[in-house]
Amino acid sequence: MSPILAQAAERPSKIVNPLVLQRADPQVFKHDDGYYYMMASVPEYDRLAIRRARTLAGLSTAEEAVVWRRPESGRMAGYIWAPELHHFDGQWHIYFAAGNGDDKFHIRTYVLSCTDTNPLTGKWSLTGQLETPWDSFTLDSTTFVHRGVRYLCWAQHEPGIDTNSNLYLAPLATPITLAAKPARLTVPTYDWETIGFKVNEGPALLARNGRLFLTYSAAATDYHYCMGLLTAHDDADIMDPASWVKSPEPVFKSSPAHNVWGPGHNSFTVDENGRDMLVYHARDYKDIQGDPLFDPNRHTRVQPIHYTADGVPDFGEPVANGPL
User: Fold this and answer.
1) Which residues pair with 40 in a beta bridge?
2) Where is this site: Important for catalytic activity, responsible for pKa modulation of the active site Glu and correct orientation of both the proton donor and substrate (predicted)?
3) Which are the contacts of 40, defined by CB distance < 8 A and separation ≥ 6?
4) What positions carry a catalytic annotation?
5) Rounded to 5 degrees, what angle do the CA atoms 211, 212, 218 make?
6) Torsion angle of alpha carbons 126, 50, 265, 16, nearest 10°?
7) Alpha-carbon distance 258 to 29, whole Å?
8) CA 60 – CA 74 distance, rounded (Å)
9) Is the dihedral of CA 46, 51, 56, 58 positive or negative?
């Protein structure tokens, strides 16, 4: 990166949407080292890259460091989807989904780990495949700590259930092993969750105002893609599916007025002033030629989260392109 670009990436500036072009399934978080870190799916589905900046706006020009590329053949040589970067147990971990070389849709979840301080320049090694009760389509893992326990939430096809993916939750024993039988939190049943495909995927947790708000994405990855919401009280048994209340309507969906289509696969972060921010991908047009999975123009976008009088997030609608 040139000195000018490096300075621009560090300088506080105005967020302009889209924040990062052609980066889907974005995860952005502010680490305790003061940097914002970002990972996302790339259109080629062939590598894992991390970028970081001192400001949210700086992510738009921050240089990406490719920390892993898929092998030429064999396991993990297929589609590489939806990475997430986390730091716990004194290490960095990347959860990501990968297909096989001879079956790109043989999607399973894997974990890479790094003990170095800087994950962009550190050495990464394969920890292994996530172990769940079923050897089936598995993706979109996220992890969080609640009341001193680290949990993993992910999407998976459960044999015997006629859906593409449901959401599951379990405490973690190690980065790749569960400490308990997973709880099935939600199955796509509403009409808006089952357009094109029967999908609940891309979970992300926001803990605020005495409650846990677990967003997820639903439907096919075209303009029908949207966000749903599960809510639980902070003191509830979150491993009991009955503790979670599911919104009957999507909480974030396409905006014809702002020409933003298929918003979803979100994450949460805070801006430099501590304001809660929604991070998500969407397209700038409604109609797609061919399979939407291979349309590269799902762009990373951010916008502030507002709250109702009783403390529930009101995501509103996707904001139009331009400065926030």
Assistant:
1) none
2) 140
3) 20, 23, 24, 25, 26, 27, 83, 281, 300
4) 25, 201
5) 135
6) 180
7) 26
8) 34
9) negative
Would you give per-residue pLDDT tens digits along the chain (324 residues)? 444 444 444 454 799 999 999 999 999 999 999 999 999 999 999 999 999 999 999 999 999 999 999 999 999 999 999 999 999 999 999 999 999 999 999 999 999 999 999 999 999 999 999 999 999 999 999 999 999 999 999 999 999 999 999 999 999 999 999 999 999 999 999 999 999 999 999 999 999 999 999 999 999 999 999 999 999 999 999 999 999 999 999 999 999 999 999 999 999 999 999 999 999 999 999 999 999 999 999 999 999 999 999 999 999 999 999 999
Distance CA 96, CA 156 (A): 13
Q: Is the pTM of this model over 0.85?
A: yes
Both structure tokens of 154: 């992910």
Cβ atoms of 201 and 194 within 8 Å: the answer is: no
Which residue bears the tokens 């089936």? 136
Could you give the maximum distance between any two Cα atoms of the chain, in Å?
A: 56
Which burial class, exposed, middle or buried, applies to 207 when counting CB atoms under 10 A from its CB (0-12, 13-18, 19+)?
middle
Compute the distance between CA of residue 88 and CA of residue 96 in angstroms, rounded to an integer. 16
The CA distance from 39 to 115, in Å, is 18
